[in-house]
Write a structure and sequence with these properties.
Blueprint lengths: L1 E8 L2 E10 L4 E9 L11 E7 L8 H5 L3 H7 L2 E5 L39 H16 L2 E10 L2 H12 L6 E5 L9 H11 L3 H7 L4 H6 L8 E6 L5 H5 L1 H10 L4 E6 L6 H18 L5
Parallel strand pairs: 4-5, 4-6, 6-7, 7-8, 8-9
Antiparallel strand pairs: 1-2, 2-3, 3-5
Length: about 290
Amino acid sequence: MKLLSSQRCFDGEQRRYLLESKQLNGSSTVGVFLPPSALVTDAVPVPALIWLSGLTCTDENFVQKAGAQRRAAELGLALITPDTSPRGDNVPTDPSGEWDFGCGAGFYVDAERDPWSEHYRMHSFVLEELPLRLCSELPLDDQRLGLSGHSMGGHGALVLGLRHPDRYQSVSAVAPISHPSQCPWGRKAFSYFFGTTPEAQLRWRQWDAVALLEDGYRRNDQLLVDLGSADPFLHEQLRATDLRTAAANNHQPLALFIHEGYDHSYFFVASVIDRHLEHHAHALGLMR
């Protein structure tokens, strides 16, 4: 693990690392914000929130635009921000050069089809390799992890959180792609990663938060989801109504809010980030 940069920030440190990843079959950058409590001599490992970013993003978008470090420093909460896909000259991407699939758009799944399966294993990277590497070298508590994300990253957070409820103590999402098997962005990605046969489309369900709820996956704790009423993707791509219905029908506690006038941008993320940090801080034992 190579340290690429480190900047002082609210008496903590915003760092960027380069990891060699077996899951991604290449190198990957990741941001880590360490709060002041993690920088003292003989620091006790602190809990961390893993943030998954959305389409076209890198590990730096959330770090530079969300304004999360101030409140995270106050709470004593570390922030982990992986990239959104594998990258490199040997990593395949959208054959037509579009922005909504491939590099910058890995959808946090483990691809099954060639040529994608050699590198696109973001689910296993986030679940296993990322915390193992970071928590072994930094004062981070791998037993106290929260998970959140925006858009495609919100999809990733919901899927990881539902499939692995014991791994993450808390889950939230901002403007998530809730039902990817039934929206254009998700159907395109799943078609490449898994195929389009009837059997393949059945496997899509394990990567779809609404389908997972319908199939009996649930968490005992409450999911927090925020969306904006002026989000141009609200109905066609995000399908929040489907998430609300599936949660209600399958007894999943859900606090879903639609905020008047907000869109899909990081201005919205910045407007609601403190409530998400506090949601996780409560679950991770940092707030009463």
